[in-house]
Amino acid sequence: MTEADAxxxxxxxxxxxxxxxxxLTLMADEARRTLxxxxxxxxxxxDLTAKVTTKGRKLPGSDEVIVDVDLSGxxxxxxxxxxxxxxxxxxxxxxxxxxxxxxKSKADDEETELxxxxxxxxxxxxxxxxxxxxxVIEALGEAYDxxxxxPGAVFEEPDQPKEPxxxxxxxxxKGDDA
Length: 178
What we know:
The chain is of the alpha+beta class. It has helices at 15-20, 30-40, 116-119, 132-143, 166-174; strands spanning 12-14, 22-27, 44-59, 62-78, 85-99, 123-124, 129-131.
């Protein structure tokens, strides 16, 4: 894995511990915030805190963990209208379902029609581990608007030169005064 492919935040927990339930508070240190800000195109990421809770659910044939990420932070970025830097809060909440091992779904059969439920495939724990750090980054992706507008910024359409009517162009070609 190259540095460019490396995850922006890794924080793994064991599936069985997550199944029993966890309450974590993850706070990005300065080095991590700088790395994340560079990757998201932010001027600066001042604060990033995620409250992560997990709970298990038994299903026929498998166990699953619901990972809930409640993210908050503060960012400085360029206004999408004025290009001026401005600082503002960000927040998002996501829930992710993780299973211990991949389930066989109806979508795995060759001649089966897919339903919406078949498209919502849960994540699969890798080697009995869940990387909740990747879900923090996913929540940040939901929260961060790369084209956010600072308060009061309004986009104004630039004045366009008025196009002459085709008849005015023809009359000039003909030599008439329009």
